[in-house]
Design goal:
- The complex is a heterodimer of chains A (122) and B (280).
- Chain A is an alpha/beta fold and 122 residues long.
- Chain A has one domain: Rossmann fold (3-Layer(aba) Sandwich), CATH 3.40.50.2300.
- Chain A has a 5-stranded parallel β-sheet, sandwiched between helices.
- Chain A starts with a strand and ends with a helix.
- With 280 residues, chain B is of the alpha/beta class.
- Chain B contains 11 helices and 7 strands.
- The radius of gyration of chain B is 21 Å and the shape is globular.
- At the A-B interface, α1 and α6 of A face α7, α8 and α9 of B.
Chain lengths: 122, 280
């Protein structure tokens, strides 16, 4: 069965590219453009990896990541999280490590890097 | 000629020249015309006095002027900022104006019009080396202002010559597109470019409203998003322009945004034209 990716990013460009590219790589990918339904999505589905934009309308990506890690179901609490963002100035590597974000990529996105990051965790 | 190894050489020569008329009359304000808008100008000259005179003229005309006293310094400045017009002295020690111009255009891929400034007269060599125009030293204030005016208004809008088309840097980086196509196919690119265009139309309108009402933080957030999207799709020139505007916007004082937005719209048009060719 295909591995499942949840992608939270408000950019239509990133949604279009990521969906097609990861489908081409054999993944099942679902996209959301806001942070508000990310937690529900995870609660109601079994995702193998979450790609999270840090700057999202609704709930901020950092806050979402720390909520995911607090999930009562240990399997869901440990879903690999890959952060993507255009700006890490407000956060340091330590902040990501502390929350338990597994990997982080800076926009502009290099899909070679994103695809290999996803493959690493699935 | 006299030479010493490791120290360089001294040359002497004599030549006949007509006595030039000194045209610099900075103090007489009727010779200072105002530019239609504040343009970002970079002045490069190793002579501090010349630099100051030219700078004063342009500042009085309403330009935002930055100066560099060597080719090296100019390269450094141009790595982090896009100017609208560059005025360059030809005779400079270490790296002259011709070499500096070549480096700016071939290494940094700068499209800004570069104007040669020299006392030795116009020379066809200037144009071969990538200069777009020429002004004589000693500097005539009106001529200097009018030259800047001409190039801030014709930049990108002028009909490109054949030579321009060959030299013209593409708005879209074909390498990035090719890689994305190899991942997701041409239809995906078509859709993503369409998404990008539709979003950018809205973003540019929003930007104008935000900058006019001095909401610089919100404006720089939007520019940041544009930079990320454009960069991901390999629309390099738009990514760089968004980055430049983001930098200025973050300084909370953005006087030249109307002109910069115009330029953004022109880049957007060039992008759309290139994108059409890409799809076919």
């Amino acid at each position: 069965m295909s591995k499942k990716i949840l992608l939270a990013d408000d950019s239509p460009v990133i949604q279009t590219l990521s969906k097609k590219i990861f489908q081409g790589q054999g993944y099942d990918i679902k996209g959301t453009k806001t942070g508000t339904n990310v937690l529900d999505e995870i609660e109601n589905n079994d995702y193998d990896v979450v790609i999270l934009d840090i700057i999202l309308p609704g709930t901020n990506g950092m806050e979402l990541a720390s909520q995911i890690r607090k999930n009562k179901d240990p399997k869901k609490a440990n879903i690999p999280i890959i952060a993507i963002s255009g700006n890490y100035k407000n956060y340091s590597k330590e902040d990501f490590d502390e929350i338990g974000i597994n990997d982080y990529l800076i926009k502009p996105l290099d899909y070679d890097a994103l695809v290999s990051a996803v493959k690493k965790y699935t | 000629m006299q030479s010493r190894k490791g120290y360089g050489s001294e040359f002497w020569f004599t030549f006949k020249a007509k006595v030039g008329k000194s045209k610099v009359r900075v103090g007489t304000d009727q010779r200072i015309k105002k530019l239609q808008r504040a343009a970002d100008v970079l002045l490069i000259d190793d002579n501090a006095v010349n630099l100051q005179i030219a700078s004063e003229i342009l500042v009085k005309a309403g330009a935002n002027v930055e100066t560099a006293s060597s080719g090296f310094e100019a390269l450094k400045l141009c790595r982090t900022k896009i100017y609208e017009v560059i005025i360059m002295d030809i005779q400079m020690p270490d790296m002259d104006g011709l070499v500096t111009t070549e480096k700016l255009q071939k290494e940094l891929h700068i499209k800004t019009p570069i104007i040669a400034m020299t006392a030795y007269g116009e020379d066809k060599e200037f144009y071969k080396h990538g200069f777009q125009s020429y002004i004589a030293k000693p500097i005539d204030p009106l001529e200097l202002i009018e030259t800047v005016e001409k190039w801030i208004n014709t930049d990108l809008r002028r009909t490109p010559s054949k030579e321009d088309l060959i030299r013209k840097e593409q708005v879209i980086n074909k390498k990035v597109i090719d890689k994305l196509v190899s991942y997701g196919g041409i239809d995906m690119i078509y859709q993503a470019l369409q998404d990008f265009s539709e979003e950018l139309v809205v973003q540019l309108k929003t930007l104008q409203i935000l900058l006019r009402s001095k909401q610089y933080q919100k404006a720089s957030d939007i520019l940041h998003t544009i930079k990320g999207n454009a960069g991901t799709l390999g629309i390099d020139q738009i990514a760089r322009w968004a980055e430049y505007m983001e930098t200025v916007s973050k300084m909370k004082k953005y006087t030249s945004f109307e002109g910069d937005l115009n330029k953004f719209n022109l880049l957007f048009k060039s992008f759309q034209e290139e994108a059409k060719l890409l799809i076919v």
